[in-house]
Amino acid sequence: MATDVIQTVRGEFAKSLANFRAMSEDAALEQTIVQAVDTCVRSLRNGGKILFAGNGGSAADAQHWAGELVSRFYYDRPGLPGIALTTDTSILTAIGNDYGYDYTFARQVEALGVAGDVFVAISTSGNSPNIVRAAEASRARGIHVIGFTGQGGGALLPLADVCFRVPSTETPRIQEGHEFIGHLLCSLIECAMYPRDAD
After folding, report:
1. How many structural domains does the chain have?
2. Spatial separation of the C-alpha atoms in residues 113 and 51, rounded to whole Å
3. Sorted alphabetically, which PROSITE patterns does this protein's record hold (predicted)?
4. Tens of pLDDT along the chain (199 residues)?
5. Would you say 57 is a known binding-site residue?
6. pTM of structure
7. Is 138 flagged in the annotation as binding?
């Protein structure tokens, strides 16, 4: 039993390391990060906000990253406007009841989003219907879309201004990549918006 557990642990480490190695060697990913940071910073400097949404583990990412912006990441600075569209159960259940689950995020984008905002759409498959509909609603309103998907990109890919495609088809590996990139994005936005004073 212990041997099986150890082999499983080693195998998972190996897969995660291989995934991060592939990400670290991807020049296109580096450029996507640059584009995404620029998109978010331009929006924030122009009075915009960043909306986040996802399902399941991706909903947790949406809330996590919004919290990093509103509160802080590496250091104290003024809060930045980030909103997770996954947190208000009254809104989510009202929309789900009245319009269907596929509209849980699109309806909120319609109500809260304005041209120049950013919608961060998180879906490991890229095919979550409620995320795809929210991306469509965003594009219709002049809201920039940043996608987080697995390697294929799914239906979300053509709707995204920039899309982070983690080079894996395994949900855990994709989510691990998303978490790393999301942290990096929050860090770089924080630094660009409120540069830390040199000691």
Report:
1. 1
2. 8
3. SIS (PS51464)
4. 788 999 999 999 999 999 999 999 999 999 999 999 999 999 999 999 999 999 999 999 999 999 999 999 999 999 999 999 999 999 999 999 999 999 999 999 999 999 999 999 999 999 999 999 999 999 999 999 999 999 999 999 999 999 999 999 999 999 999 999 999 999 999 999 999 875 4
5. yes
6. 0.96
7. no
Full domain range(s) for residue 162: 27-193
Annotated ligand binding at 175? The verdict is: yes
- In single-letter form, the type of residue at position 53 comes to A
CATH number of the domain that residue 31 is part of: 3.40.50.10490
Any residues with CB less than 8 A from the CB of 83 and at least 6 apart, and which?
49, 50, 51, 52, 66, 112
Residue 199, marked binder: no
95 domain residue, yes or no: yes
Residues across the chain = 199
Neighbours of 96 (CB within 10 A): 15
Q: Flag whether 98 is marked binding.
A: yes
Place of tokens 């998972």: 12
Q: Tell me if 123 is assigned to a ligand binding site.
A: yes
Ligand-binding site membership of 182 (annotated): no
133 inside domain: yes
Residue 128 marked as a ligand binder: yes
